[in-house]
Amino acid sequence: MQQRFDSGASGSFLLQRNGVGVAFVADLPFRCPRCGEHERFLSLASLRAHLDHRHSYRDTGAAGFSITGKLPDPLTAAIPWTDGGWRPPYVRSLSDSRDGSDHHRYGSARRRTQSVGVGTQPEEEEDEVKTEEDKIREDDLTSEQNLMSADLNEQISGLASAAVQRRLASVLRAADDSVERQLAQLSSELAQTDTELLCQRAQRQLLNRERQEVMERKRSLSRQVDVAVAVIAALREQINASENQLERQERAVVTIQKFLEAAARQETSGKVRIQNFIENLLSRIDVAERLLEYYQVVLPDWRRRAAVIGPPPIKC
Fold it and tell me: What is the pTM of this model?
């Protein structure tokens, strides 16, 4: 996980140098006025070496820029005479040394021009001696100034390095504190997120189980509905068959009833006919018995008369 270190208004940035990504801390106090933010240095000595090596010519555009940029300069904070106030007599800047050397050079050149106009040999020798003395004094002065500037540079570099180390330590402490706070906050947020994820996962698993149960119940209900529909269709077919059979049985019952009615009518008519037949037969039997009795009584007379007139007619 990429962590971002925040310390007040300063932050980290990434420079691409020679195709390789290098992380630099923007809290280095000194920056090159020509290179800008791409080149920052820890001390004035390293900045001076960079300027001598990379920018040896005099940069007129760098006068309007600050070495430290927007960040406070620990060198100016450490030196009390930077505001133009009182300075110790042994402290001289490079501009003062340049001004003095220019003044001596200007005086020697002026004396040489004046001596050229006169053209006398002793004066020329005196001028040469004076110029040699001036050169010796200038060399001594420049050597003293170089020694003093070296001592001053060492003191300034020591003060600057101490100030930079203090600032770097404070920045690192602030960064460590901010990182620890961010890590604690991130850990708490991660723990809360983990608990929320666990709760969401448990709820999701519960919902999945409930969904599976609902789907199984739906499938079982659909199977039951299919079975019920099949049973209802079979029962409907059975009911239709029963209705058809009942209709056939009703028609058969009606037919049987009609047949029974016809049989009953035929039976009654047959009974009447049989009764009439029996009555007729009984009447005929009665007539036959009377005739038999009559013939038994009148048979002798009849035989005699039959011989004369013939048998009497029979009544039906």
Answer: 0.30
